[in-house]
Every structure is written in structure tokens, then in C-alpha cells.
């Protein structure tokens, strides 16, 4: 009984280890995402800012959707510097206050009108 339990435990730990390892390798791969566009809300701090830098490093067009123009523009400069991107037209700030339906509608209409490419990724990193 104890032996069967231990064998089961070892198999479970091995399966979890293999799953985590294969998932991590996918996340850390240095894939080139040029031609793709990502919208990131809450991109001026925390998780959103870190993701914006990672996507910019992979040559994605990055739309930083933030409610403060000052923090959004500051984040844009930070992303460009951290990702070592000089094509600053591909990392853009757009105003979006998620607590206002009017702002959400404006953001959506503006994005549909001005984005030449189909959006591929949307990341919500705001409260
Ligand atoms: N950090 C973690 O380890 C972790 C783990 C799991 C899940 N999460 C989730 O990930 C999300 C972000 O976490 P975080 O740690 O990165 O938080 P954070 O640093 O506080 O960032 C929150 C972001 O949301 C923005 N935001 C808040 N209200 C907004 C609104 N009405 N319109 C537009 N943007 C708004 C903030 O903008 P302002 O600067 O203008 O306030 C800020 O950029 C949260 O939902 C959290 O629950 C975080």
C-alpha cells in the first residue's frame, strides 16, 4: 500500500514537473512577433508594464492603454528604452479609462479606425 502510494506520488510530481517545464519553455522562447499588435491595459505599471517591455522586445506593435497621459507617455519612453526599440511609432500610448463606458467606446472606435492590422493579442492588466 505504502509502495503504491509512493510510486503514485513520484509519477504525479514527475508529470507536474514536465508540464511546468514545457510551459515555461514556451513563455521564455524569444519568438519574433513583428506584424502582430498587442493592446495592454494597465501598461504603465506592474504586470502590464513588464509585459509591454517583453512584447516590445519581440518586435510587436504595442498599444499602451492607460488612463493617465503623463503616466502613459512615461511608460512609453520606458518601454522604448528597456526594449531597445528606436521605431517609436510602433510603441504607442492611447487613452483608456476602464471606469468610463464613454472612454471605452472612444478607445474601441479609435482603435478600429486607426489600426491597420488585425489585433492578435489583448491583455488586461488593470484592476
Ligand atoms: N502583481 C501580481 O503578482 C499579480 C498576480 C496575479 C494577478 N494580478 C492581477 O493583474 C492586474 C495588475 O496587477 P499589478 O500588480 O500590475 O497592479 P498595478 O501595478 O497596481 O497596476 C494596475 C494598473 O491598472 C491601471 N488601472 C487601474 N484602474 C484603471 C482604470 N479605471 N482604467 C485604466 N487603467 C486602470 C493602473 O493605472 P494607474 O497607474 O493610472 O492607476 C495601473 O497601470 C490586477 O488585476 C491583479 O489582480 C497581479
- Domain count: 1
CATH H-tier superfamily? NAD(P)-binding Rossmann-like Domain
CATH architecture: 3-Layer(aba) Sandwich
Portion in strands: 15-25%
Secondary-structure class: alpha/beta
Q: Low-confidence stretches at least 5 residues in length (pLDDT < 50)?
A: none
Proportion in helices: 40-55%
Q: Which strand order do you get reading across the main beta sheet?
A: 3-2-1-4
Strand segment count: 4
- Could you report the average pLDDT, rounded to the nearest whole number? 89
- CATH class, anyone? Alpha Beta
Q: What hetero molecules are in the model?
A: NADP nicotinamide-adenine-dinucleotide phosphate
Tally of separate helices? 4
Shape: elongated
Order of helices and strands: HEHEHEHE
Q: What is the terminal-to-terminal distance?
A: 48 Å
Topology:
Layout: H1 2-28, E1 37-41, H2 46-57, E2 61-66, H3 69-83, E3 91-95, H4 101-114, E4 121-124
The site of NADP nicotinamide-adenine-dinucleotide phosphate has 17 residues, from helix 2.
Describe what this molecule looks like in 3D.
The chain is of the alpha/beta class and 127 residues long. The protein has a single domain (33-124), classed as Rossmann fold (3-Layer(aba) Sandwich). It has helices spanning 2-28, 46-57, 69-83, 101-114; strands spanning 37-41, 61-66, 91-95, 121-124. It has a four-stranded parallel β-sheet, covered by helices on one side. Helix 3 links the parallel strand 2 (61-66) and strand 3 (91-95). Helix 2 crosses helix 3. The mean pLDDT is 89. NADP nicotinamide-adenine-dinucleotide phosphate binds next to helix 2.
Amino acid at each position: 500500500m505504502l509502495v503504491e502510494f509512493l510510486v503514485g506520488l513520484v509519477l504525479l510530481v514527475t508529470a507536474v514537473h514536465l508540464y511546468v517545464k514545457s510551459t515555461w519553455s514556451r513563455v521564455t522562447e524569444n519568438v519574433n512577433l513583428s506584424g502582430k499588435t498587442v493592446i495592454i491595459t494597465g501598461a504603465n505599471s506592474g504586470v502590464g508594464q513588464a509585459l509591454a517591455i517583453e512584447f516590445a522586445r519581440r518586435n510587436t506593435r504595442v498599444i499602451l492603454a492607460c488612463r493617465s497621459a503623463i503616466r502613459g507617455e512615461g511608460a512609453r519612453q520606458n518601454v522604448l528604452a528597456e526594449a531597445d526599440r528606436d521605431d517609436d511609432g510602433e510603441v504607442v500610448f492611447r487613452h483608456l479609462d476602464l471606469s468610463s463606458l464613454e472612454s471605452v467606446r472612444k478607445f474601441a472606435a479609435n482603435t478600429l479606425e486607426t489600426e491597420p492590422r488585425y489585433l492578435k493579442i489583448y491583455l488586461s492588466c488593470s484592476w
